[in-house]
Structure formats: structure tokens, C-alpha cells
């Protein structure tokens, strides 16, 4: 089956996720700049989550550009990824509203960890469908960045109970790693 519907559906879900997250930013009742100060933790958690959703949207787009078609297994693997991404607004709000307390930060990392695993599964299902010698399989290669991300999340989750700020710093580190564009799929498609 064609891949257009999965792309459109996924784009719509990601747009809704961003919309839900921004609705957590409550409008102050005062017109002074100081009224924004209590929103800083919520805004910072929103900012990090917005970046993560953007990273997933960008990489998901590249991933689907590298394949010709999808099948039922791909649809389910994609829904699995979207499930974990749909939890980001909840953990974003929980983390921001509780000023980065340990448990919400650990849960935030858990959602990031399972989203990364789901993305890996989606990639593997696409490679299995396209073939081990496909452009996607060659482009993904050993996927060191993906594997390193999972390890960092696994370290950051228990670290949240010692220092939620160090844990959040590791989440930011992973986001920065992925902000540097991964051109493997683009290069594979051009060759």
C-alpha cells in the first residue's frame, strides 16, 4: 500500500501533540512581565518537548521518504511510536508544573526512552519490508546515534532521583545530538 496516508496521519498526530502542549501554557491574568515568571518552568519543558517532537517529525519524514510502500506491520509499528509520542504532553506538563521534580523528570525520560525504542522498531520493520540491501538499510547502518540515545535515557532516568537537573541536561544533550541533521538517508536517496 502507498505511504501517503501514514505520512498524513502521523503529521496530523504530531501537530495535535504540539497543540496540546502549548495549551498547557496558561495565560497570566496580569499584564506585568513578572506575571510570566511562574510560567518559566512550564515554558522550558514545553520548549524541550517541542524540539523533541520536531526531531521526530523531521526524522520520521526522512524515514518514510526512503521507502516505496508500507504494509500492516509498518502501520502498527508507526502507531506504537505515535502512542509514546502522544504521552509527551502529559509528562511535559507534569515536569513543568512540578518544577522538575524527580518523579516527573524520570517519567519524562521513560517516555523518551520508549519513543526511541519505538522509532527503532519502526525503522527495523521498514528495513525488513524493504530489504536488507535497500537504500534505507544502507543509510541506517548500525544507527549509533539511536543506540547512544537509548543508553543516555537509561542512565538519565534513575539519575533523576539524584539530580533532576543532571537528568534534564542529558535529555537536552540527546536533543542537541539529533538537532545536528542526520544526512544518512538523504545521501542514500541521492546515490
TrEMBL record:
Segments traversing the membrane: 12-29, 35-55, 75-94, 106-129, 150-180
Catalytic activity: K(+)(in) = K(+)(out)
Family statement drawn from the similarity comment of this UniProt entry: Belongs to the TMEM175 family.
Topology in membrane: Multi-pass membrane protein
Database matches in InterPro entries: TMEM175-like
Subcellular location: Membrane
PANTHER family, alphabetized: ENDOSOMAL/LYSOSOMAL POTASSIUM CHANNEL TMEM175 (PTHR31462), ENDOSOMAL_LYSOSOMAL PROTON CHANNEL TMEM175 (PTHR31462:SF5)
Protein name as it appears in the record: TMEM175 family protein
Pfam families in alphabetical order: TMEM175 (PF06736)
Transmembrane in keyword set: yes
Keywords: Ion channel, Ion transport, Membrane, Potassium, Potassium channel, Potassium transport, Transmembrane, Transmembrane helix, Transport
Lineage start: Bacteria, Bacillati, Cyanobacteriota, Cyanophyceae, Leptolyngbyales
Keyword Nucleotide-binding annotated: no
Amino acid at each position: 500500500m502507498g505511504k501517503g496516508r501514514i505520512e498524513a496521519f502521523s503529521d496530523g498526530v504530531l501537530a495535535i501533540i504540539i497543540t496540546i502542549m502549548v495549551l498547557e501554557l496558561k495565560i497570566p491574568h496580569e499584564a506585568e512581565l513578572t506575571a510570566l515568571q511562574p510560567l518559566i518552568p512550564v515554558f522550558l519543558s514545553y520548549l524541550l518537548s517541542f524540539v523533541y517532537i520536531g526531531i521526530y517529525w523531521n526524522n520520521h519524514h526522512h524515514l518514510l521518504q526512503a521507502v516505496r510502500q508500507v504494509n500492516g506491520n509498518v502501520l502498527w509499528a508507526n502507531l506504537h511510536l505515535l502512542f509514546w509520542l502522544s504521552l509527551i504532553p502529559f509528562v511535559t506538563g507534569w515536569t513543568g508544573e512540578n518544577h522538575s521534580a524527580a518523579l516527573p523528570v524520570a517519567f519524562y525520560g521513560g517516555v523518551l526512552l520508549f519513543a526511541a525504542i519505538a522509532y527503532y522498531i519502526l525503522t527495523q520493520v521498514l528495513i525488513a519490508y524493504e530489504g536488507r540491501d535497500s537504500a534505507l538499510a544502507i543509510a541506517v547502518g548500525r544507527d549509533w546515534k539511536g543506540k547512544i540515545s537509548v543508553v543516555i535515557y537509561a542512565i538519565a532516568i534513575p539519575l533523576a532521583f539524584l539530580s533532576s537537573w543532571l537528568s534534564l541536561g542529558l535529555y537536552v544533550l540527546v536533543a542537541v545530538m539529533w538537532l545536528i541533521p542526520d544526512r544518512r538517508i538523504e545521501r542514500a536517496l541521492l546515490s
